Amino acid sequence: MHRFIEIIGQFALKNMCHPGRKLEVLLVEDNPGDVRLVREALKEGGFPGHLNVASDGDEATDILWKRGDHKDDPRPDLILLDLNLPGKNGRAVLKEIKSDPDLRRIPVTVFSTSTAPNDLDYAYALHANCYIRKPSDLDEYMQVVRSIERFWTTVATLPLAKDCSASA
To answer: Could you tell me if residue 82 is inside a domain?
Structure first.
């Protein structure tokens, strides 16, 4: 399986609307250690994009709806969402994203330590695109983050940005 991912990883990033534009990823994560690990894994993997970080659910929704200090933040092409956040939790954020006609097309990968079957069921009921449990082993954690990045940048074709769909 790892060899398959390496082979697939040789293909270029697919971005049909703006080929020179970097992939925008929103990481919604309150744990600074996890943020650091995700950044490090993406850097080591040669991530061809930009990572924006929200430390809680309220900041995530401010970024998504371009409120306050985030009015100029780019719209994400992909969201990595932790469920266990202070304030507005990841479940509420996922529900808001998938209820909004403009945002529901953005793929959401739930990336959580939760092993509770209710969390898994709830995430998929709210149309999460996938649910990945955070490994406790450091090497495995880094490998999982790089696999997420490779999948979304080389295997999957992301939806066109809203400003592109009319011209496509």
So the answer is: yes
